[in-house]
Amino acid sequence: MATNPNPQISIPQVLSKNLSLTVSSRVVTSSVSADDTKILKQIQASHAHDAREVDVKPILDVIEDIFQRAKTSILADLIVDGAQDLGDVQEAKIGGATTGPKANTLDALAATIQKVCCEFTCKCTGGDAHASTMAILEMLGNYSWDAKVVIALAAFAVTYGELWLVILLSDTNPLARSIAVLKQTPEIKGVLNPQFAPLNDLIKVMVDVAKALIEFRLLPSKYISSDDAPLATSVNQIAITTYWTIRSVVAAGAQIATNFGIGGTTSATEAWDLSSLAHKGTSLHDNLVQRLRICYEFVEEKKREEAFDNLVHLSKMPQKDNMRFLKTLIYARQDIQPLVEITSRKRLHIDVLRGKTVLLLISDLDAIEEELIVLDKMYKEAKKGQNGLEYEIVWLPVVDRAITWTKEHETKFKELQYKMSWYTLFHPSLLDVASIRFIKEVWGFAKNPIVVSLDSSGTVVSKNVLHMILIWGNSAYPFTTAKDEELWKEQTWNLDFVVDAILPEFPKWISQADTHICLFGGEDIAWIRKFTTTMKQHSSKLGIKMELVYVGKHNAKEAVKRIIEVINSEKLAHTLPDVNQVWHFWTRLESMLYWKMHHGKNVESDTIFKEVMSVLSFDGGDQGWGFIGSGSKTEIVKGKGEVIIESVSQFGKLAEDKRNPAGFLDTLQDIMQTMVKPSSHHCNRLVLPAIEGAGVPTVVNCADCGRPMGKYFLYRCCTGY
Q: Which of 85-94, 414-423, 463-472, 602-611 has the lowest mean pLDDT?
């Protein structure tokens, strides 16, 4: 797995979108046995928690310190050295529990701890372990489950610690030696002695259980309550676990009182009892850990819901500037600089976007090279000189958190990032899951890239201006819906609008009234040869200045590459500089169509809609096609296959005795109309990619006859495109 480039940020796994449903349906195998069920009512009856809150974590720190010191001191067998650093280590470990408010907690619980200690030390020898356990539970009825366990453990730790103090100091301290003689404490050197193993294992399990129970109590009530499924289904398990942990305390106390106080040793039966309790405790602890994990997932999902709702709220609120919304969306914390400018390799804070129009480029890691080329050209033009184009672009890569981040993903990310001259997120892992959900659910991102436009105050003025950018480029600045509509109101259908200077020569050709431009496409090289030969022959004969430009075919990258090579080598016509320009030409036309559809236009009432539909239908077919116009005139003649070739040939024959006849386009149009009757057979296909939120209607009328077109589903895989 690739190393996360930002160690402060983990790449979390995706949780269920509705974790509350997932948690309620997830089964955690209960470790509550049939016998446990029988005593569960007794345990619950003893519990009368009166909402008093006791922070027992500092007490558990002291308990752990007692257990650890006894163990490490004997392992080292260096009593004096251990005593020398006692003060410093004690203060570092448990100093907080012996001073301030936490000391008050210990003072308040001291008497209770002593009562519990008396309960299991006075009654455990030969007594009923269950009865002693229930007596302690009754005694601690008003406390929370974790407090019950910690108080019981504290009582045991006192007895355990006193025993080891006598054992450890008896060689060097006369008082300890005298006490050891009266108590007949055995000389035990080392917890590695086999008789200590079961007790040590049990102690570890009890401490682990106490920690897990404390974690349950510390779960944030803001995000999870006792009525929520993860906690509601854990109540019985917590009660049973508390019972068995206190019962383990009773058994451990019996071990101390009956064996180490009268010089005895642990019998095989007693050792087996302790081992059984440790095994039982381990099973209960593992079950608690599973339930805790589900609770934490539930809490995280609630936090993400809160973050998502906050984003939705912010996106609807007027803001003083764009900082609050952008920081909440991109990266809310201040611990790192989340943006990077690749050209300078500088890490930057989001503040560099303050007060600016911001375009958020949102995509996954799949190839978006064509879009990047268009955006790069536009962005670099905007940065030249004083042109009033004050905007910034920020790339937000959206990655599925369910996948494992690999070296291949890192490579793909870096390759895309290095192609961008604008700001990008330093790493995809910085984008919060709530932000990804917002981007998908509110802005409609699914697979295809989108560009969200925000004004200088952080208000979203358009959820996707990519179509706007493809059609108008920087003319669409400041990338608002109002500006877009203004540009459309001023626009008419003409050759200048269609070609949009995709060749350097186009502006010159467009400005020359006597120059005709013929765009043609398709992937049949035989037809292309015949068409270009016919056009050149008759235009030359008649003195018509004609420029032929091959614009390729959409979604046929490799085929178009080969055809461009043939056209250039045989000098059949002009071609677009590369296949990326071919992509831009066709995608721009698609964007026009999407805009018209989204705004309720149709072929009967909108000329641009009708003409764009017609050209895209040509591209969707199997035949070649031609599209002829001149300058900024709205008159454009178009045809496909043999029809346009035959029409040009007929025009040539009609005009043999005239050079440069007037009305070339009108005459050619008349000829084509006589060849193609409205009632004649035609088969037009319109192939459009699925674009989320594009507003494509269920009914599309044919550009030729006006009848509704049939709708089919097309699933296509074009490797290499």
A: 85-94
Question: Is residue 460's pLDDT more than 90?
Answer: yes
C-alpha span between 556 and 579 (Å, rounded):
9
Angle made by CA atoms 467, 472, 476, in degrees to the nearest 5: 95
Strands 339-341 and 346-348: antiparallel
- The verdict on pTM exceeding 0.70 is yes
Both tokens of 537, joined, read 């022959």
| Segment 665-680 mean pLDDT | 72
Task: Answer whether residue 299 shows pLDDT above 90.
Answer: yes
Report the SS3 class of residue 294.
helix
- Enter the DSSP assignment of 170: T
Asked if pLDDT for residue 436 goes beyond 80, the answer is: yes
Domain residues for the domain of 664 are 495-675
Predicted confidence (pLDDT) at residue 89 exceeds the cutoff of 90: no
Higher pLDDT, 521 or 126: 521
Number of DSSP helices (H) and strands (E) in the chain, helices first: 27, 12
161 and 52, same structural domain?
A: yes
pLDDT over 80 (residue 204): yes
Distance CA 567, CA 592 (A): 29
Q: What are phi and psi of 435, to 5 degrees?
A: -70, -40
Shared domain check, 596 and 649 = yes
Helices (H), 432-578: 433-441, 466-472, 481-490, 495-499, 506-511, 525-541, 557-570
User: Tell me, what DSSP letter sits at residue 494?
Assistant: -
Q: Is residue 607 part of a domain?
A: yes
Residues 91 and 140 in one domain: yes
The verdict on residue 17 lying in a domain is no
- Do 455 and 342 share a structural domain? yes
Distance from the first to the final alpha carbon of the chain: 31
Q: Residue 665, class by beta-carbon neighbours within 10 Å (0-12 exposed, 13-18 middle, 19+ buried)?
A: middle
C-alpha span between 528 and 535 (Å, rounded): 11
Assess contact for 368 and 413: CB atoms under 8 A.
no
Task: Name the DSSP class of 463.
Answer: S
Task: Count Cβ atoms below 10 Å from residue 469 Cβ, excluding itself.
Answer: 23
CB 664 within 8 A of CB 544: yes
What span, in angstroms and rounded, lies between the C-alpha atoms of 461 and 455? 7
Q: How confident is the model at residue 188 (pLDDT cuts 50, 70, 90)?
A: low
Residue position matching structure tokens 């626009």: 491
Q: What is the number of domains present in the chain? A: 3
CB-count burial class (<10 Å; 0-12, 13-18, 19+) for 682: middle
List the strands of the sheet with 515-521, edge to edge.
574-575, 545-552, 515-521, 625-630, 636-640
The rounded distance, in Å, linking the Cα atoms of 423 and 342 is: 7
- Residue finishing a domain among 453, 479, 505: 479
Residue 442 one-letter amino acid = V
Cβ 351 vs Cβ 323: under 8 Å: yes
**Measured between alpha carbons, how far is 514 from 684 in angstroms, rounded to an integer?**
32
Higher pLDDT residue, 258 or 442? Answer: 442
